[in-house]
Design a protein that fits this description.
The protein is mainly alpha-helical and 218 residues long. It is 51% helix and 5% strand.
Amino acid sequence: MGMPKSGTTWMLEILWTMLHNPDLNNPQGVDELIYIRAPHIEFDMFSDNKSYSKIFGKNVRSVEVFSQMCPGKKMEDGVFLQLSEALPAPRVIKTHLPFSLLPPDLLHTAKVVYMARNPKDVVVSLFHHFCNLQLHDYTGTFDTFIKHFMNDDLLYSPYWPHIKMAWKNKDHPNMHFLFYEDLKTDVMKELRTLNNSWAPTSPSNNLIMWSNTHLSRQ
C-alpha cells in the first residue's frame, strides 16, 4: 500500500517471495507476472470493463491463468477483483488507495505494509510513468506536471493526507510503515523485520542471497 511510485511493486515481490517462495523453488515466481500473483485490486476502475478485458486479453498466458483461477467467471466483470478473491491464503494484494477509501476495519482483518517515499522522487518517477503508460498518455511538460502534483490534481492525490492517514496507524500491530529510502539503504534489515513480525520462519539462505543480489539493486 502507498502512493504510486513509492516502491509498492518492489515490496510486493518481497512479501510474495517471503510467503510463497522462501526457498526460491516455486515456479510461479518466474512463470507468473506480479499482477497475477499480487493483484492491484482497484485497477479495474481505470477502464470500462469491455475495453480493459480487451487489453488484458492480449496476454494469452494471463487469460489462461484467469480461466484457471476464476472458472466460469467473466473478465468483463473485473479482472483484478476476481483474481484477488480467488487467490489462496495468505494473499498479497496491492492498492494505492488511501485509508479513507478502504474498509474501516482493514487493520483488524488484514496486515498492511505501507510504503512512503520522498515526494521529489515520487513526482519524477510518476511523471515518466504517466508519459510512458498508454493508459495515462500524458503529453504535457514536467513543470506542468509538478504543478498538477502540488495542486493535488493527479490520480490518488492528495499526497500528504495519504501519507498522514497511514502514519496515524503506524503503531497498530497489523501495520508496518516504512520508507523507500530505508529499504534501499538496508533491504535485509527490513526483510528481517517483516519476517520476525509476520512470517512463520526465518528467511532461508537462498532468499537472503537473492535479496542481497537482486533487491538491493532496485
